[in-house]
Amino acid sequence: MENKKTTVSLCIIAYNEETVINGILRDFSIQDYPHELIEVIMVDGESTDNTREIMEEFAKTNYGFKDIKVTSCCKHRQAASWNVALKEATGDVIIRIDAHAKIPRSYVSRCVFNIESGENVVGGGRPNITEDHSSWKLTLLAAEDSLFGSSIASYRRPPEKKEYLDSLFHAAYRREVFEKAGIFNEDLGRTEDNEMHYRIRQNGYKMCSCPDIISYQLTRNSLKHMIKQKYSNGYWIGLTTGVCPQCLSYYHYVPLLFVGAMLVCAGLACFGFALPLIALCALYGMFDIVNTVGCFTVNKVRPHFVLLPFLFPLLHISYGIGTIIGLVHMPFWRKKILHKKAD
């Protein structure tokens, strides 16, 4: 592909994202890659707020793009909306961006450059940020951005050099990747990326994390939404275990192991064996305090940081309980899927 001829489909899906979508669309509008080679595809999941209206207003402004398409998906599932975007996409390179995200001005051009250099799927580090710099929101950001509070996944950290990973956020794909690996599994929610990227690897493609590519994920702006997100993530890990365990990593199950160990130790304590529970709490408490001190050290100290020792277990327990419930529901959910496919 030659840079001057490479066309790009820049895709985004959204459901009730009126509070954040203006930011990412603004980032789209200032991309330094030639706009006449970019088509923007926006899929609205039948929002009940002003998300669709914001998309349509952006389409009217145009910003010199090759095309701007606004369409809908009646299925309230991310995978289904991404499939609608893939169906509409005509570009040589397809880029997926979340609504809760920010991308620098050079994002599209750096993705295209690395694709043209011979890669098939590219992305980069995806740190968390917040647009609200209040002490409370920065505390939520510190919890989310911490390895202890969120994830040790390599794709969250900017790489020092090119490296090949199992998954990427906000990735750019050659069109042929989807033509060979297929579309997203619409039975999945929250884990559709994991399963799709597994199939992409199974079809012989490598996923390259590049040091010159970076994007940002906006942290959920309330503890309620963050806990809901963690629970949902865990729930879909539990369900996905029944259909594609190969697409998951060991770290996805760490919160499950923690909650399970807590329940077992609490049960033993009820029968007079309190030492395992005390030992587990002491071990967890040590990691909790060490990582809280780390947040104080790495970040500019905020008054609400004193709440971090309580936030970390809330996030872990929410995720772990979600996984347990997902595993309990999994056999029935799997049977329902198999029955649907048989029909």
Short description:
With 343 residues, this protein is an alpha/beta fold.
What labels describe this entry?
343 residues, alpha/beta, 2 domains, three-stranded mixed beta sheet, 11 helices, 15% strand
Can you characterise this structure?
The chain is an alpha/beta fold. It has 2 domains: 8-147 and 160-219, Spore Coat Polysaccharide Biosynthesis Protein SpsA, Chain A, CATH 3.90.550.10; 226-342, no CATH class. The protein contains 11 helices and 11 strands. It has an 8-stranded mixed beta sheet with strand order 3-2-1-4-9-6-10-8, with helices on both faces. The chain has a 3-stranded mixed beta sheet with strand order 5-11-7. Strand 1, helix 1 and strand 2 form a beta-alpha-beta unit. Helix 9 (254-270) packs across helix 11. The radius of gyration is 21 Å and the shape is globular. The termini are far apart. The mean pLDDT is 92.
Neighbour order of strands in the largest sheet: 3-2-1-4-9-6-10-8
The name of the CATH architecture of the largest domain is Alpha-Beta Complex
Largest sheet: 8 strands, mixed
User: What's the CATH H-level homologous superfamily of the largest domain?
Assistant: Spore Coat Polysaccharide Biosynthesis Protein SpsA, Chain A
User: In CATH, what is the class of the largest domain?
Assistant: Alpha Beta
Q: Give the low-pLDDT segments.
A: none
What is the CATH topology descriptor of the largest domain? Spore Coat Polysaccharide Biosynthesis Protein SpsA, Chain A
Shape: globular
Gyration radius, in Å: 21 Å
- How many strand units? 11
Count of DSSP H/I helices: 11
Proportion of beta-strand residues: 5-15%
Distance between the ends: 43 Å
